[in-house]
């Protein structure tokens, strides 16, 4: 019985390590690229706020969340991002090819999302960042991308990345 438990424990540990390595490799392969000068570009959100990423991320980590109303995984990630926003984490959403500003605003109201959002109706912002998949999440501090991830993300996974970004950078 003891040998069998040790065998299965080893199998579980090996599987977790392999999955972690694969997840890191996939994130590295699909990483966004922060465009030169983007931090100084002035933007206006659907909520009417005007800012630059340099100002928004000054001395604090900010989540930049590329998402789409049509994205299946975003239906699970967007509530997590909203929860971060409700907890006081600065979030800037980029609604990728999700319709007009009015359509995106209506979608957000319908889902009770309140985080600041830019409408990227034609995909130009996402193209500048070389976003390959949605959702893509970048953590920015002092105008520089310090972390990124793609796909499904948990609240505590993102929260730990934000904490590390705040502590290390």
Automatic annotation (TrEMBL):
InterPro entries per record: AhpC/TSA, Thioredoxin-like_sf, Thioredoxin_domain, Thioredoxin_ResA/DsbE_sf
Pfam families: AhpC-TSA
SUPFAM superfamilies per the UniProt record, alphabetical: Thioredoxin-like
Transmembrane segments: 12-29
The entry's keywords: Membrane, Transmembrane, Transmembrane helix
Domain Thioredoxin: residue ranges: 30-169
Keyword Secreted among UniProt keywords: no
Source taxon at top rank: Bacteria
Protein name: Protein disulfide oxidoreductase
Species assigned in the record: Uruburuella testudinis
């Amino acid at each position: 019985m003891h040998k069998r438990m040790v065998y299965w424990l080893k199998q579980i540990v090996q599987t977790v390590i392999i999955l972690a390595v694969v997840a890191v490799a996939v994130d590295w392969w699909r990483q966004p690229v922060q465009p030169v000068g983007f931090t100084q570009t002035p933007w206006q959100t659907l909520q009417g706020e005007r800012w630059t990423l340099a100002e928004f991320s000054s001395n604090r980590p900010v989540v930049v969340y590329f998402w789409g109303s049509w994205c299946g995984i975003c239906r699970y990630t967007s509530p997590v991002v909203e929860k971060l926003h409700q907890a006081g984490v600065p979030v800037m959403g980029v609604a990728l090819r999700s319709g007009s500003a009015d359509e995106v605003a209506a979608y957000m109201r319908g889902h009770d999302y309140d985080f600041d959002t830019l409408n990227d109706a034609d995909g130009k912002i996402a193209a500048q960042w070389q976003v390959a998949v949605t959702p893509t999440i970048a953590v920015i501090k002092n105008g520089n991308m310090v972390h990124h991830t793609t796909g499904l993300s948990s609240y505590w996974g993102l929260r730990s990345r934000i904490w590390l970004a705040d502590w290390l950078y």
